[in-house]
Amino acid sequence: MGCVVDAKQLFDEMPKKDLVSWNSLISGLLKNGCVDNCFDVFHRMKNEMGLPLNEVTFLPMISACTEMGAIDEGKYIHCFVLKLGMLTEVKVVNSLVNLYGKCGYVDAACRLFEGMPVQNLVSWNSMIGIHSQNGLSLEGMEMFNELRRCSYKPDQATIISVYQACEDLGIGKLAEAIHCLILRCGLFMNTIVATGLLNLYAKLGRLYASQNVFNEMFSPDKVI
């Protein structure tokens, strides 16, 4: 915390502050867990300096809102993003989607997602995870199937989100299908993915399959 105080003091003593220095201070505060201070700096930056805000400003602010579950502050940031015409910035919209989803506003997250001019794998992963985390696992699996129809290749984050949906739905055959997909995509060598699959089978009562995954992970022929 002392380093944060020193950084703020040095910042205040700077004769000239530009957008980079303000953004650096906000990011540094967030990384050090000083979430509340991020909002103070943001308002000071906006009100006192009148500097134009950019993507680098908004991303840590949206992350701060998500971490705190501060949906009202998040909506406030969303209004600024909208006003500045930044809903075309994929990273910013992905962060807003994640914010609304983590705060339980699934419909708002869906509207943002559907309104994106371009969606990437991070966008899809967020939507799958959001539905699963909010008790909408069937809808999460539908999002996953749509992702596959759009020819995206799943990554670690995709599979981890799907595990939650599979567990909630309790369908062993679905876990087997995901297992096959993991092998086809070359993700079994990923320790997090393989361990998650082992745990999924165990939670579904498929202990034999879980043991097989364990044996495969630690086979002398495998390097994980």
Provide the low-confidence segments as ranges.
Answer: none
- Kindly report the name of the CATH homologous superfamily of the largest domain: Tetratricopeptide repeat domain
Overall number of strands:
0
Mean residue pLDDT: 87
InterPro entries: PPR_At4g14850-like_plant (IPR046960), PPR_rpt (IPR002885), TPR-like_helical_dom_sf (IPR011990)
Pfam families: PPR, PPR_2
Keywords: Repeat
Organism: Tripterygium wilfordii (Thunder God vine)
Structure summarized in a few sentences:
This is Pentatricopeptide repeat-containing protein. With 224 residues, this protein is mostly helical.
Descriptive keywords:
224 residues; mainly alpha; Serine Threonine Protein Phosphatase 5, Tetratricopeptide repeat; 13 helices
Topology readout:
Layout: H1 2-13, H2 19-31, H3 35-49, H4 55-68, H5 71-83, H6 90-102, H7 106-115, H8 121-133, H9 137-149, H10 156-169, H11 172-184, H12 191-203, H13 207-217
Report on the structure:
This protein is an all-alpha fold. It has two domains: 117 residues, Alpha Horseshoe (Serine Threonine Protein Phosphatase 5, Tetratricopeptide repeat), CATH 1.25.40.10; 105 residues. The chain is built from 13 helices and no strands. Helix 3 runs antiparallel to helix 4 and helix 5 runs antiparallel to helix 6. It is elongated and about 65 Å long. 31% of the residues are buried.
